[in-house]
């Protein structure tokens, strides 16, 4: 919008200059012809009126160019005096009315920005702002736990089957099922984890915060147990190596 207005203003300015130039040229031609007709010999020779008229127009042209040049240099000097570095404006740097207007607009902008901040916003599938789950996308976070558990399962059971994208978790991690504890209903963390992952994979609705907490807790319990099994395996291997070294000695 500003560029369009600037184009219109520049075009009007150039049109005005063209009209003035045409008017001056026409007036000069008419005055010169009138000066020739009023002389006794009706000739350009020894016609001092032509010199006066020509000199007048030359003086006007030079004065106009000098005025434009002076104005251009004055504007350029003022622009050069503007500081290029960031500096806070003080009351004495600008007129009082300008300073009050800048202060008013700055205050209004700050109020608008403050009022525009989200408060108690809830977006389906995401943690609420201000809570411990803020900025977490529940579906993505739950699905990202699958390769982590699979990597730990391969450390504990090297022959564990490779991860396939469409297998249920109960089938994928069936070999670690005996390692997991059961609750009073006879269900292991893997059962809860499988249910939540199925919802995250195939449900049209985004997981809720409760479903995310259930799945995250189950995944954490499974990773903890697999990590403890891995530590026991390493400790057992170290004890075996130490015993073999003692026998050789």
UniProtKB/TrEMBL annotation:
Q: What is this protein called?
A: Defect at low temperature protein 1
Keyword Endoplasmic reticulum assigned to the entry: answer is: no
Native species: Heliocybe sulcata
Q: What does this protein do?
A: Required for growth under high-pressure and low-temperature conditions.
Q: Where in the cell is it found?
A: Membrane
Q: Which residues form the signal peptide?
A: 1-29
Membrane topology, record value: Multi-pass membrane protein
UniProt KW keywords = Membrane, Signal, Transmembrane, Transmembrane helix
């Amino acid at each position: 919008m500003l560029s369009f207005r600037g184009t219109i203003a520049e075009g009007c300015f150039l049109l005005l200059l063209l009209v003035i130039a045409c008017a001056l040229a026409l007036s000069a031609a008419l005055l010169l012809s009138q000066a020739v007709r009023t002389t006794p010999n009706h000739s350009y020779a020894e016609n001092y009126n032509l010199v006066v008229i020509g000199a007048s127009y030359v003086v006007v042209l030079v004065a106009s160019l000098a005025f434009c040049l002076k104005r251009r240099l004055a504007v350029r000097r003022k622009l050069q005096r503007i500081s290029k570095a960031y500096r806070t404006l003080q009351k004495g740097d600008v007129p009082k009315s300008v300073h009050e207007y800048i202060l008013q607009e700055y205050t209004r902008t700050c109020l608008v920005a403050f009022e525009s901040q989200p408060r108690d916003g809830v977006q389906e599938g995401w943690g609420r702002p201000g809570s411990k789950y803020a900025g977490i996308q529940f579906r993505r976070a739950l699905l990202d736990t699958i390769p982590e558990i699979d990597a730990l399962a391969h450390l504990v059971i090297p022959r564990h089957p490779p991860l396939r994208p469409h297998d249920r978790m109960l089938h994928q991690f069936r070999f670690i099922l005996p390692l997991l504890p059961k609750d009073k209903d006879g269900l292991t963390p893997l059962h809860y984890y499988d249910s939540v992952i199925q919802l995250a994979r195939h449900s049209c609705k985004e997981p809720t915060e409760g479903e995310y907490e259930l799945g995250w807790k189950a995944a954490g319990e499974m990773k903890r147990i697999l990590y403890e099994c891995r530590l026991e395996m390493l400790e057992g291997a170290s004890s075996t190596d130490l015993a073999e070294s003692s026998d050789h000695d």
